[in-house]
């Protein structure tokens, strides 16, 4: 079935990104927008915009019934959830199936399989992937018994979600009770699911992920990305391919990701995330994200593929259009997330009116954004304003391109992290060595001294 009209159940730069590909494919677009986004750039780019509720996400972008009703009212035959919000919500996928709307994403069963981190861990084990020592705990006594077998330090993780919520490193038994209670409370508040589990804490690790694409029968990988530059488990810089990764480790990660995809008979785009233990030179499965990722442009840059178009093709029932040996990788790409935050005041959010916005341009520079002069940054949503992506022959050239791109990026009216990125790309600890998950924290501490 060829899709004629897609409802985009999202906002911001990803909504604009999906609209662009739909236009190239000749597919009409309907933007499902909250009252706060009715005059946004994506609302003006879409063929039609429909209001799904007030600014609060729970009453608009997270309202399954409102989103499905909007698709039915506008006679959309497909629904793209983007990332965040309802992107990995199996209830939405099932409601779409029941309403005869094609959900552009994995099946409801696949969303259930990887949306629960403990269930995803079991599927990873069944597919032969390495996982960190750990397991689920229901109370302090169970946590203490498991902690003794894992050893200190360890990490408390929430079962129901990510983004750093419910994630607590624990150094010794004296910290365990308080941090366990705090993690469970955070997990319940964020995901309505207080369940947690413990894993061995990797002190020096790299966050490396593998992009996979499946059609329900076959699965291929589209290379890897390094997402180790993080603040409080939120990614800020991503690179493809992951720099300085041992060749054998890279190949094993690719094979492991494809193995999990085949085990699930996966349909659509998915990202299998791994933690590479630098000291032990080994990797372990972290989780799987069953959606398009914020950092997908760096994979597009090095493969030349439009991943949104690939999502749509598979959702329409088409077989994979490319075989594994036809995927070609070229050069090195880097992405910086530009956010409306005051990075010198502990990244305090900075909503408001953008009085001026000037973004870089060039043959090897891409900017995904929903911001222009006069745009409003509402206080209700994620603070990301844009993604700057550069593509060079190697990492060194890409770093120089990013420095030039950041120098040509000017946003007024709200605080941003552009200056932070500019300083980071001059920092020897980032430029000379592949970053690990503690690199940004160590570097930020020197900037505040």
In short:
With 449 residues, this protein is α+β, with helices and mostly antiparallel strands. It has helices at residues 12-25, 41-45, 64-73, 90-99, 108-115, 117-126, 140-150, 173-191, 247-264, 296-303, 307-315, 395-407, 418-424, 428-431, 439-447; strands spanning 5-8, 28-34, 48-53, 78-80, 102-103, 134-137, 154-158, 168-170, 196-200, 205-215, 219-231, 234-240, 267-277, 282-289, 332-339, 341-342, 348-349, 352-353, 356-358, 365-369, 376-377, 384-392, 410-412.
Task: Provide structural commentary.
Helices cover 35% and strands 28% of the residues. The chain has 15 helices and 23 strands. Helix 4 (90-99) runs antiparallel to helix 5 (108-115). Strand 16 (341-342) and strand 17 (348-349) form a beta hairpin. It starts with a strand and ends with a helix. It has an 8-stranded antiparallel beta sheet with strand order 14-13-10-11-12-15-22-20, sandwiched between helices. It has a 5-stranded parallel beta sheet with strand order 3-2-1-4-5, with helices on both faces. Strands 6-9-7-8 form a 4-stranded antiparallel beta sheet, covered by helices on one side. It is of the alpha+beta class. It is globular and about 60 Å long.
């Amino acid at each position: 079935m060829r899709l004629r009209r897609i409802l985009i159940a999202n906002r911001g730069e990803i909504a604009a990104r999906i609209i662009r590909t739909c236009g190239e494919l000749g597919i009409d677009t309907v933007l499902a927008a909250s009252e706060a986004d009715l005059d946004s750039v994506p609302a003006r780019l879409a063929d039609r915009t429909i209001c799904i509720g007030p600014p609060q996400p729970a009453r608009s972008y997270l309202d399954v019934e409102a989103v499905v009703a909007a698709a039915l009212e506008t006679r959309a035959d497909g629904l793209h959830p983007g990332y965040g919000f309802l992107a990995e919500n199996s209830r939405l996928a099932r409601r779409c199936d029941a309403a005869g709307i094609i959900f552009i994403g994995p099946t409801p069963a696949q969303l259930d399989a990887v949306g629960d981190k403990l269930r995803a861990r079991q599927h990873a084990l069944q597919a032969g992937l390495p996982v960190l020592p750990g397991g689920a705990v229901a109370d302090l006594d169970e946590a203490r018994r498991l902690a003794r077998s894992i050893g200190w330090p360890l990490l408390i993780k929430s079962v129901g979600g990510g983004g750093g919520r419910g994630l607590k490193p624990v150094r010794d038994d004296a910290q365990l009770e308080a941090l366990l209670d705090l993690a469970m409370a955070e997990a319940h508040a964020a995901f309505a699911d207080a369940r947690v589990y413990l894993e061995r804490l990797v002190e020096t690790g790299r966050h490396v992920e593998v992009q996979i694409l499946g059609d329900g029968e076959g699965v291929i990988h589209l290379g890897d990305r390094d997402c180790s530059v993080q603040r409080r488990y939120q990614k800020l810089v991503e690179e493809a391919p992951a720099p300085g990764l041992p060749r054998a480790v890279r190949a094993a990660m690719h094979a492991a990701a494809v193995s999990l995809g085949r085990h699930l008979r996966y349909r659509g785009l998915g990202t299998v995330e791994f933690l590479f233990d630098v000291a032990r030179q080994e990797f372990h499965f972290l989780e799987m994200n069953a959606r398009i990722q914020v950092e997908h442009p760096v994979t597009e840059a090095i493969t030349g593929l439009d991943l949104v178009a690939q999502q749509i093709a598979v959702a329409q029932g088409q077989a994979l259009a490319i075989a594994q040996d036809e995927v070609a990788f070229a050069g090195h790409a880097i992405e910086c997330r530009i956010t409306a935050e005051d990075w010198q005041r502990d990244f305090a959010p900075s909503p408001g009116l953008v009085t001026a916005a000037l973004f870089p341009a060039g043959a090897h520079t891409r900017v995904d954004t929903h911001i222009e002069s006069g745009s409003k940054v509402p206080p209700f949503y994620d603070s990301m304003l844009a993604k700057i992506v550069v593509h060079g022959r190697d990492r060194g050239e890409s770093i120089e391109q990013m420095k030039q791109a950041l120098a040509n990026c000017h946003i007024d009216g709200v605080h941003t992290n552009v200056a932070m990125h500019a300083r980071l790309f001059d920092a020897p600890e980032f430029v000379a060595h592949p970053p690990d998950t503690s690199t940004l924290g160590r570097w930020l501490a020197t900037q505040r001294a």
